[in-house]
Amino acid sequence: MPPRSARVFARGFALALQFATGIVFLVGGFNEFAAPAFANRQFLGSVAIALSAFTSVRFGDNRGETLPAGERSLLHLLFGWGCVWWLGGGLVEIARHVATRPEAHAMLAWTAGSVAVAALAARPLRWPRLDSTAVVLLPALALSLAHDVAHGRTSVTEYGWAVYSLAWALHFALLYRSEARAAAEPAATGAKETVGLRPWLAAAHAIGALLLLGQVAWEAGEWTARVAPRGSVWAACAHLVPLALYLLAVTLAERAAKGQQLQWPLRTSRDAYAVTAGSVVSVALGVGFAALAVLSPGDPRPLSYLPLANPLDLTLMVALAALFLWANRHAGATARTLYRWLGVGAFIVLNGVVVRTVHHWLGVPWQLHALVASRPLQAALTLTWTVAALAAMVVATKRQLRMLWLIGAGLLAAVIVKLFAIDLAALSGLTRVVAFLGVGALLLVIGYVAPLPPTAKAGADT
Questions:
Q1: How many CB atoms lie within 10 A of CB 17?
Q2: Average pLDDT in the 23-42 region?
Q3: What distance in Å separates the CA atoms of residue 216 and residue 239, rounded to the nearest whole number?
Q4: Which tens digit of pLDDT belongs to each residue from 26-35?
């Protein structure tokens, strides 16, 4: 038997030879354009390099702990080298022979198919390393989705409905199998069966949920835009609704469980879906809420505009409820803070309803200078703010919430400032009379039905 140093040298030389072969093959170029797809020297050469690397890695894995630690670490590099040649060879063939439109879907199908074959072969070959090929699936899904979005098209055309369905099914199946294997590991690894999943598994759950939700939101808006009138609000609402439904689903699922075991995948990765992915979704939903509430005229064609009973206002209310329920469970904020933000959101929605009603019913152009100069809108806002203050102060008086009463009083102060600083000069005739008399009447009502709650109850404010 040759000495140990000789065996190490031989293995090192074989490893270097494989890398050198790949480099020489790559430098030689891919010039056999007339050859059939997947039946040419370039693809078969790539497969040969990949299989050579896989064979070497399998040999090293079989040796196990008998290999030096340095050589074992090189096995990861060599396995990645083989995967690159296998996947790269197929992707190059697809780029050559498949038309541009279905190219991304074909590449995703090749990647997902390769991962599926590796996963199926891992158990009969007793080679767990093959399961690690799953790490390329989410990046492949993300790139394919980005390609579809960048080209402004739905992802289900060009056989996308089949490719994405199989890829997502494979993603969750591999996660389920990986979790089962992680749960069966010895307790010495520090893993707990239900909550102590490896960080990469939790990350895969969260990233996968965000990608899938993003695809659903994109598809909802894309297909809605195809049937809704151009320039209407339907497509924008369709983009936002899946985000709100996701937050409602994970929050209500947790509440419905009431100490019972959740269904997979929430059973093992609840924080990944409800907290990690939920935080990203809540930020995106909050930004979308603010953008639609402030910027969108809310055109509901072919329907007529009805305040609160139109797609935009309904979407905003659902989004606000979803954000509040999710934040109440996962944001870690106090009840007082959450209710203040809920009040801010409701106030934004209410003002938007007033502005859009004036825009649609009175024909005021959806332009900032036109809206600011609109006398009916200024009068309507003044009365709306006063009614909102009245409602807040009445509730505060009944429930002895001194802080809420003071917030209502502050809104009333803003109304009075607006009356004399803006409305007195901007309004004239009937609109001025309506605004001033309406505010005066409501102030009298507040004085009778909503007195300031006693200071003794201040500590009970929420």
A1: 11
A2: 70
A3: 8
A4: 766 666 556 7
List own/partner pairs for 403-407 with CB under 8 A and 24 or more apart: 403/336, 403/458, 403/461, 404/461, 405/450, 405/452, 405/453, 407/340, 407/343
Single-letter amino acid code for the residue at 236: A
Which residue type, as a one-letter code, is found at position 437?
Answer: L
What pLDDT is attached to residue 168? 97
Distance, CA of 124 to CA of 121 (rounded, Å): 6
Structure tokens at 185: 């590991």
Spatial distance between the Cα atoms of 443 and 411, rounded to a whole number of angstroms? 12
- What are φ and ψ of residue 155, in 5° steps? -85, -5
* 312's tokens: 């935009």
As a whole number of angstroms, the distance between CA 419 and CA 439 comes to 9
- Please answer whether residues 61 and 127 qualify as being in contact, where contact means their C-beta atoms are separated by less than 8 angstroms: yes
Residue for token pair 């080209």: 151
Cα–Cα dist 130/447, whole Å: 75
What one-letter code names the amino acid at 412? L
Rounded to 5 degrees, φ, ψ at 232 are -80, 170
- pLDDT at res. 112: 97
Question: Using the 8-state DSSP alphabet, how is residue 452 labeled?
Answer: P
Cα angle 110, 176, 216; round to 5: 60
In 10 A of CB 442, how many CB atoms? 18
CA atoms within 13 A on the CB side of 225: 13
- The label of the residue with tokens 């996962």 reads 330
Q: Which residues of 360-370 are buried (b: 16+ CB within 10 A; e: fewer)?
A: beeebeeeeee
Distance CA 33, CA 159 (A): 26
89-128 pLDDT tens trace = 899 889 888 876 788 999 999 999 999 999 999 989 888 8
Q: How far apart are CA 5 and CA 2, in angstroms?
A: 8
Please state the length of the chain: 462
Mark out the alpha helices in 184-276 (DSSP H runs): 199-227, 234-257, 266-271
List Cβ neighbours of 202 (8 Å cut-off, separation of 6 or more). 269, 271, 272, 276
